[in-house]
Design goal:
The chain has about 210 residues and is α+β, with helices and mostly antiparallel strands. About 30% of the residues lie in helices and about 30% in strands. It has six helices and nine strands. The strands form two sheets. A seven-stranded antiparallel sheet has the order 3-4-5-9-8-7-6. The longest helix has 16 residues, at about 195-210. It is globular, with a radius of gyration of 34 Å. It starts with a helix and ends with a helix.
């Protein structure tokens, strides 16, 4: 049998032959399997953005201080605790949502003690006392003990403990803008979930404190 090359060329380049060859090529190509691979696409809002959305900033232009706190977990209150003296210029209570709701509902009226919490106080320091001497003459700390030095917001600070109705941890430093004394206090009952919650508030104030 003779091979007709001219006829073969016509068949190869005909429309029918192109379709047949394409089908053969596709059938012989290995098909990847997607059954074993799952791709998870995260939403555009990252965890950092969620943290930023829940972040509150307390700023006081009169006393030149600023700190951050969690809007989701805490409420800032200027009205509950009265200043301890004429030199105590400002008291900022930081309450968790549960305690804030109870205070608003009047649960502690009539002389009941308020819960342990986190707190920021501002004191006038007209004599420009050192931190050590200021703490010694203050009537607001019962039996201060366990002193240590730390650096907070670029300033030398003292940390110490005191006892009273609650066990307290204090961080004391001078505001370089005003020379006022800043006291950040964590009060604890010694057990329970509330202590852990307020430790977070206290640490967040310490970590974010600045003077504007």
């Amino acid at each position: 049998m003779k091979f007709n090359s001219q006829l073969m060329r016509k068949w190869v380049f005909s429309p029918v032959s192109v379709v047949v060859l394409a089908a053969v090529a596709i059938a012989s190509y290995p098909v990847p399997s997607f059954s074993a691979t799952t791709t998870s696409i995260e939403p555009a809002t990252t965890s950092k953005k969620l943290v930023a959305q829940n972040q509150g900033a307390y700023r006081n232009n009169t006393f030149k201080l600023r700190f951050n706190y969690s809007l989701q977990d805490f409420v800032i209150d200027h009205k509950t605790t009265r200043p301890s003296s004429n030199l105590n210029l400002l008291v900022i209570d930081i309450w968790n949502k549960k305690h804030a709701q109870k205070i608003k509902a009047g649960a502690y009226e009539g002389g009941a003690e308020y819960p342990a919490n986190a707190q920021v106080r501002v004191y006038y320091n007209p004599r420009r006392l050192s931190l050590q001497n200021w703490i010694k003459q203050s009537q607001d700390f019962a039996a201060p003990k366990k002193f240590s030095t730390v650096k907070i917001a670029g300033q030398n600070a003292l940390q110490f403990e005191s006892s009273g109705l609650y066990e307290n941890k204090h961080t004391v430093l001078v505001n370089p803008k005003t020379s006022n004394i800043i006291v950040v206090t964590l009060s604890q009952i010694g057990s329970g979930n509330d202590d852990a919650i307020y430790r977070r508030a206290y640490q967040q104030v310490i970590n974010s404190l600045s003077f504007n």
